[in-house]
Amino acid sequence: MNVFLRTSFLLTLITVSAADDLKPMFNGRDLSGWVRTNTPEATWTWKDGMLICTGKPIGELRTKKMYQNFIMEVEWRHMVPRGNAGIFVWADDITSKGVPFHRGIEVQVLENAYGNTRGHTTHGDIFPIHGAKMTPINGRGGSRAFPTESRSNPSPEWNHYRIECRDGNISLAVNGKVVTRGTKCSPSKGYICLESEGGIVHYRNVRIQELPDTAITPEEVAISNRGYRSVYNGLDLSDFKEESTSWKSQDWVLSSATQNGQTATLTTNESADDLGGVVDVKLNRPTSTASVTFGEIEINLSDEAHQQLLGKGWNRLELTRQRGRLVLLINDKLASEQDDSKNNGSLVLNAQGAVDFCNLYLRTLPPKNGN
């Protein structure tokens, strides 16, 4: 029996032997039940019963529903050597500051040619990412859990993962055998994500069995849906009214570099009433500065009060409504607040010097008696 037939036969046995109450997570036609967190429609397509991910841009697709205790099975294959992808569990609603990925626990999906090192393998690492926590079993001094043996098949062969998440513990079976485990995960309830990270990857037979919830503290629950929607597709500038030729779309990052005090401006095509949102910004030189306008509210980072809250790397600006007032947070700290009123319009980015932006999200703010 050749390699392809043997692999397909083994995976069929694994699939058939799985619990009878595993239910499909996709309908095989579209992304109903899922949210394209920061990736466009072109990233994810269905063909011949497979969900095909182009790998571009780098970003995520997440479930609409949060899960705590569950068993998830999925078959995947990379279509290019050194392909990179991942499955996140217990993740937040949107991506973390300055990165195209969620906070959560990642189950690694690397193609074999990527190679194994002291710091990672290609066959089933599990690790917390961007503020999540986990105690690894079979670790190497850090927070990453390593598989006890190599069982993954190279491109373009299929692989089968069985991920079990119970009471903050996680285990991974690769092609029929448990090889990786972690404990004391936090968060331990959240969204499930599929990752796009550069290479073409196929998914099929993505199924889940929900298990009964157990008592956990609010701190163990990931951030739930706040209604944010991405307004940058990660591929080009078609989501904007471009007002300067200095802008470059560099995957999940929007970059601008001006000289002699010139200002580069981008305005979203989308506008909305009662507007709030998130923008991450990085000033790449001491002389660089920027401003962000949500509708009618301008946030100038050269203001002294704002500068005191800025870090050296990525900074997160978030305009929201709290206690009946419009509130600006910079890196989760209160920057300003004002009397509540409707905030209408578009998102506008202004940059002087070398400036990067990412994670551009807008939402309609909740009613004044909400958060």
Unreliable stretches (pLDDT < 50, length at least 5) are 1-19
The secondary-structure class comes to mainly beta
Tally of DSSP β-strands: 28
CATH superfamily of the largest domain: Exo-inulinase, domain 1
Q: Order of helices and strands, N to C? A: HEEEEEEEEEEEEEEEEEEEEEEEHEEEEE
CATH C-level class of the largest domain is Mainly Beta
Q: Please tell me the CATH architecture of the largest domain by its name.
A: Sandwich
Number of domains: 2
Please summarize the sheet with the most strands. Answer: 9 strands, antiparallel
Euclidean distance between termini CA atoms: 60 Å
Q: What fraction strand?
A: over 45%
Rg, rounded, reads 22 Å
> Kindly state the mean pLDDT as a whole number?
92
Tally the helices: 2
| Shape field | globular
Relative helix content = under 10%
CATH fold field value of the largest domain: Jelly Rolls
Quick summary of this structure?
With 371 residues, the chain is mainly β.
Topology:
Layout lengths: L2 H15 L5 E2 L9 E2 L8 E4 L2 E4 L5 E5 L6 E9 L5 E8 L12 E7 L15 E4 L3 E5 L21 E8 L2 E6 L2 E10 L4 E6 L4 E10 L18 E2 L9 E3 L4 E4 L2 E5 L6 E9 L2 E9 L5 E6 L2 E4 L3 H4 L7 E8 L2 E6 L2 E7 L5 E8 L1 E11 L7
Antiparallel strand pairs: 1-15, 2-5, 3-4, 4-15, 5-14, 6-11, 6-15, 7-8, 7-14, 8-9, 10-13, 11-12, 12-13, 16-28, 17-20, 18-19, 19-28, 20-27, 21-24, 21-28, 22-23, 22-27, 24-25, 25-26
